[in-house]
Amino acid sequence: MVVADLHVHTTNSDGELSLAEVPTAADLADLEAVAITDHDRPHPDLDEPVTEIDGVTVVHGIELRVEVSGDSVDARTPDGEDSSTNGGARNTDHGFRVDLLGYGLDPTEELLAECERIQRDRAERGGRIVERLESRLGVHLDVDPRPGLGRPHIARAVAQHPDLDYTVQSVFNELIGDGCPCYVARETPSFEQGRQLLGAACEIVGLAHPLRYGDPEAALALTADLDAVERWYPYERPVDPDGNLDVGPVERAIEQYDLLATGGSDAHGDTLGIAGLDREAWQEVRTTLDR
After folding, report:
1. What is the DSSP letter of 32?
2. Which residues pair with 58 in a beta bridge?
3. Which domains does the chain show, CATH number per domain?
């Protein structure tokens, strides 16, 4: 039974729930705890690493995308694109990108400065994507470039436009996914920089959704320098050619590097608890957070 969902996004990034709405959603899923892990920014209304809101334990967290250098490592997704509305990672000319999850966040000045830089880049990038879409589709999109803006916001605006016939996923697949005509790349910190920044600001730093990357073993090798890995996650596509989800590599990494096992729904909507930790696993994480 899932009692803790440690991967939840709010309106502070590209989620649909406000922080005030999270406890109700948690109660509906019979959760005791959630972690707010907004993309590339702390939540401004969480002043403590761990707090309680309306009877629900709320862990202040963050999800930070980082660049792993190394031309010799091929971590492409199976279709070569980062087209999922739930994020992911893609290969670049110099390596690949992964997402780090920090838990028990008490932001340092250095992390805040980097997040501010990332948010400026997000706003500028979002504006350029919107300009390309409006030019290509011949419509006006009601999207303002702003901190926290992500491609899911833009995809929803396209899907909701009365003169267009797109779903959110088809917007990614055809227009704004990696390599698509309206895609614009953004700058990300290096893995080493991200690990250092999160390590100074968080009690736990882990690798998000390791089986979403095209080469899970290459991604999992990074956990040698981390504290945790996301063991439970609602994967939306087969991880291997036979359509099987083999969590063996994750479990081996947990044993080899003595990692905490975390997990969550990667919730961007209002449904929580699709994946997460049982009571025993949550207690291990909570004990570490309380150090």
Report:
1. S
2. 34, 51
3. 4-113+201-289 (3.20.20.140), 115-176 (no CATH)
Q: Give backbone dihedrals phi and psi of 17, rounded to 5 degrees, phi first.
A: -95, 135
Query: Pairing between strand 228-232 and 260-263?
Result: parallel
Strand partners, 5: 34
CA dist 33 and 273 (Å) reads 10
- pLDDT band for position 79 (cuts 50, 70, 90): very low
Dist CA 122 CA 274 (whole Å): 28
- Give CA–CA dist 57/60, Å, rounded: 10
Phi, psi of 256 (to 5 degrees): -65, -40
Count of alpha carbons within 13 Å of 88, Cβ hemisphere only? 28
DSSP 96-164: EEEEEEEES----HHHHHHHHHHHHHHHHHHHHHHHHHHHHHTS-------TT--HHHHHHHHHH-TT-
Instruction: Give, in order, the Cα–Cα distances in Å from 131 to each of 17, 137, 139, 153.
Output: 27, 10, 10, 14
Q: pLDDT tens-digit profile of 135-183?
A: 999 999 999 888 778 898 899 999 999 999 999 999 999 999 988 999 9
Place of tokens 């290096």: 190
pTM: 0.83
Cα→Cα distances 228→78, 79, 237, 288, Å? 25, 27, 23, 11
Let me know: does 113 contact 223? Beta carbons within 8 Å.
Answer: no
Count of all residues that appear for the chain in the document: 291
C-alpha atoms less than 13 angstroms from C-alpha of 60 in its C-beta half-sphere? 21
Please, are residues 36 and 14 in contact by the beta-carbon 8 Å criterion? no
